[in-house]
Amino acid sequence: MSNVGEIGKIEFWLINTCRELGLRVENASSDFFAAGGTSLSAIRLIAKAEERFGEDSLPPEDLFAQSLVSDIATCIQRNAKHFNALTEI
Asked: Can you give the pTM of this predicted structure?
Protein backbone atom coordinates (compact mmCIF):
# COMPACT_ATOMS: atom_id res chain seq x y z
CA MET A 1 0.00 0.00 0.00
CA SER A 2 1.34 3.42 -0.85
CA ASN A 3 1.98 6.07 1.77
CA VAL A 4 -0.61 8.31 0.10
CA GLY A 5 -3.22 5.54 0.34
CA GLU A 6 -2.36 4.86 3.97
CA ILE A 7 -2.55 8.54 4.90
CA GLY A 8 -5.90 8.90 3.14
CA LYS A 9 -7.36 5.96 5.06
CA ILE A 10 -6.05 7.29 8.36
CA GLU A 11 -7.45 10.76 7.59
CA PHE A 12 -10.83 9.21 6.72
CA TRP A 13 -10.80 7.29 10.02
CA LEU A 14 -9.79 10.44 11.93
CA ILE A 15 -12.50 12.60 10.40
CA ASN A 16 -15.18 10.02 11.22
CA THR A 17 -13.84 9.40 14.72
CA CYS A 18 -13.68 13.12 15.48
CA ARG A 19 -17.26 13.49 14.31
CA GLU A 20 -18.27 10.60 16.59
CA LEU A 21 -16.67 12.58 19.42
CA GLY A 22 -18.92 15.53 18.52
CA LEU A 23 -16.31 17.69 16.79
CA ARG A 24 -17.00 19.84 13.75
CA VAL A 25 -14.23 18.34 11.61
CA GLU A 26 -14.81 18.85 7.88
CA ASN A 27 -11.65 17.64 6.16
CA ALA A 28 -7.94 16.87 6.58
CA SER A 29 -7.19 20.60 6.93
CA SER A 30 -9.43 20.89 9.98
CA ASP A 31 -7.78 21.61 13.31
CA PHE A 32 -8.78 19.25 16.10
CA PHE A 33 -8.97 21.97 18.75
CA ALA A 34 -10.54 24.65 16.53
CA ALA A 35 -13.25 22.09 15.70
CA GLY A 36 -14.19 21.90 19.37
CA GLY A 37 -11.61 19.45 20.67
CA THR A 38 -10.80 19.57 24.38
CA SER A 39 -8.29 17.77 26.55
CA LEU A 40 -10.98 15.16 27.31
CA SER A 41 -11.81 14.55 23.64
CA ALA A 42 -8.05 14.41 22.94
CA ILE A 43 -7.70 11.58 25.47
CA ARG A 44 -10.64 9.79 23.87
CA LEU A 45 -9.12 10.17 20.40
CA ILE A 46 -5.76 8.89 21.64
CA ALA A 47 -7.45 5.84 23.19
CA LYS A 48 -9.34 5.09 19.97
CA ALA A 49 -6.14 5.49 17.91
CA GLU A 50 -4.26 3.11 20.20
CA GLU A 51 -7.09 0.60 19.99
CA ARG A 52 -7.04 0.75 16.18
CA PHE A 53 -3.35 1.26 15.39
CA GLY A 54 -1.45 0.09 18.45
CA GLU A 55 0.02 1.49 21.63
CA ASP A 56 1.72 4.88 21.34
CA SER A 57 0.38 5.44 17.81
CA LEU A 58 -0.75 8.93 18.87
CA PRO A 59 1.35 10.34 21.72
CA PRO A 60 -0.40 13.22 23.54
CA GLU A 61 2.51 15.59 22.98
CA ASP A 62 2.23 15.05 19.20
CA LEU A 63 -1.51 15.75 19.18
CA PHE A 64 -1.08 18.94 21.21
CA ALA A 65 1.90 20.10 19.09
CA GLN A 66 0.31 19.52 15.67
CA SER A 67 -3.44 19.29 15.69
CA LEU A 68 -4.45 19.42 12.01
CA VAL A 69 -6.13 16.18 10.96
CA SER A 70 -3.49 15.71 8.25
CA ASP A 71 -0.68 16.11 10.81
CA ILE A 72 -2.37 13.71 13.22
CA ALA A 73 -2.68 11.16 10.41
CA THR A 74 1.02 11.50 9.63
CA CYS A 75 1.85 10.94 13.29
CA ILE A 76 -0.31 7.82 13.45
CA GLN A 77 1.22 6.45 10.26
CA ARG A 78 4.73 7.05 11.61
CA ASN A 79 4.00 5.39 14.96
CA ALA A 80 1.45 2.70 14.07
CA LYS A 81 2.36 -0.83 15.08
CA HIS A 82 -0.60 -2.44 13.33
CA PHE A 83 -0.43 -1.39 9.70
CA ASN A 84 -2.80 -4.22 8.84
CA ALA A 85 -5.45 -2.19 10.71
CA LEU A 86 -5.31 0.25 7.80
CA THR A 87 -6.91 -2.29 5.51
CA GLU A 88 -9.90 -2.58 7.86
CA ILE A 89 -10.85 1.10 7.62
From this structure: 0.86
